[in-house]
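If you are new to this repository, start here. Below is one unmodified record pulled from the training split, so you can see the exact layout before writing a loader.
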Amino acid sequence: MDEVQLKMDSKGRICFPSEFREEMGDVVVATRTSKGILIRPSKRKDFIEEFKRVITTEPERTGEPENWTPEKMKDIWERRV
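And here is the target side for that same chain:
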């Protein structure tokens, strides 16, 4: 069986046939592509290792920080309250 049509239930879950589940394992990765959604097997990430990687990686900067005036900051806070 290379291709199967699956239905999504009312909670958004998809049930795969056992032949597919045996090959996929416990964790899968869903990737949006130009042709649709690709679902492929993955490995469970070790939480501690992933946490260490995240906290030791430099954050991506998307531009220069703005130095706002106190008046601008006060205006923002007043609009949110």
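Two things worth knowing about this chain: The helical segments are 18-24, 47-56, 70-80. The chain has a mean pLDDT of 87.
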